[in-house]
Amino acid sequence: MVVREAGIIFRGFTLVKKSYHKSTKGKIDEDLRSGLLTAILNFAQSAFSKDAVEYFEGKKYIIAFKEDKITAKNSIEPELLISYAILDKEKRIEKYIRKVIQPLLDVVTYQFKSLNTGKNLSEVSQFKDFKNILDRIFGTDTQTIDQKLKGIF
Q: Residue 94 sits in a domain of what CATH number?
């Protein structure tokens, strides 16, 4: 299983994103994509139940996510914070998501909240160093089999 991308979304905008492998052809508007993902998650929660949806599965990729709340400097109440990972679709992915990816997304959310609760979250450039934290959290899960073998030899 390969993590192709990981990131954090707040108020429908991507705060931080780290791409490990290209998953699209051409340029995609990040704000449009983040807004769409947020809208789909909100719809799924309204249509089903709050904790019923952990990931979305497509033909080639899976988007796993974890929702939490964070309080920004300019808000009174905590607001939705979404951490996500885009993975290659493979057989028996559900167990891998529950046992590996969801705990990693918990760590991503915890680390981000511990560093940024109460801050102004609208200035995205302040989060570029968080990409290094994403690298440490996901580690070798971002490498293909070829990359892992090259690292061994």
A: 3.30.450.70
Number of domains in the chain: 1
- Domain span holding position 129: 3-152
pTM of the model: 0.84
Q: What is the DSSP letter of 5?
A: E
Residues 6 or more apart whose CB falls under 8 angstroms from that of 134 comprise: 6, 7, 16, 18, 108
| Residue 66 falls in which region: left (phi positive, over 0), alpha (psi -120 to 50) or beta | beta
Tokens of 131: 């990409």
Provide, rounded to the nearest whole percent, the portion of the chain with pLDDT above 70: 84
Token pair 């080639």 in the structure block, residue: 60
Cβ atoms of 120 and 11 within 8 Å: the answer is no
Q: How far apart are CA 145 and CA 142, in angstroms?
A: 10
Tokens representing 56 are: 């979305």
Phi, psi of 80 (to 5 degrees): -65, 130
* pLDDT of res. 148: 46
* Per-residue pLDDT at 143 exceeds 80: no
DSSP assignment of 69-80 equals EE--TT-SS-EE
Element (H, E) at 39: helix 30-47
